[in-house]
Design goal:
single chain, alpha/beta, five-stranded parallel sheet, two-stranded antiparallel sheet, 8 helices, binds adenine, tRNA_MeTrfase_TRMD/TRM10, transferase, tRNA_m1G_MeTrfase_TrmD
Amino acid sequence: MRIDIISVVPGLLEGPFSHSILKRAEEKGLAKVQIHNLRDYAIGKQKQVDDYAFGGGAGMVMMIEPIAKCIEALQSQRTYDEIIYLTPDGATFDQVMANELSLKGNLMMLCGHYKGVDERVRQKFITKEISIGDFVLSGGELAAAVLADAIIRLIPGVLNDETSALTDSFQDGLLAPPVYTRPAAYDGMEVPDILLSGHQAKIEDWRFEQSVRRTKERRPDLLDRE
Ligand code: ADE
């Protein structure tokens, strides 16, 4: 998979992809993330990428021309399965979307800033609008990093057995069960006997019960979905 991310603050995206699982995914040749500085496609000597909103009001709007130049330059090199715009008014990201996007070949992500992008960018180029939750970030970069992380870890071969995504929360529609490691007793708190019993089938039953209980308590809305 290849993910191209367009940003006016590319520095915000330098960290996440050079560590741990995401770095390994790139080293294994399973996922490549390329950051593009929108300013490289800016207009005029001022390197302008935003302007005042028609109709007035506080806040700047990202202009269509630099974004169009950047997107078209990328499109001339490869075909994209989705061109995603990160925005608080998009569809809320979840594990189902992460699974779907992990099956794609090439993704482009556009990070908004200021008051957002000129509406015509959305009309002309964007195929999916995604929010990571009902709150407003100062830009789409951290949201793009969240998406990329959730998507890349699902690509077959990225995780090894110990970190398999199959047992993650949400992957089966339930929250994950509690987990324990050594020591078996700490400050009077004991690990449940069943986990030390060696009965694998009973352990799986217990984990499932705990998952259902935890989901009922914390996220009953997940059980109402079809
Ligand atoms: N940009 C600003 N806030 C955002 C959010 N909640 N999700 C995605 N992109 C955003």
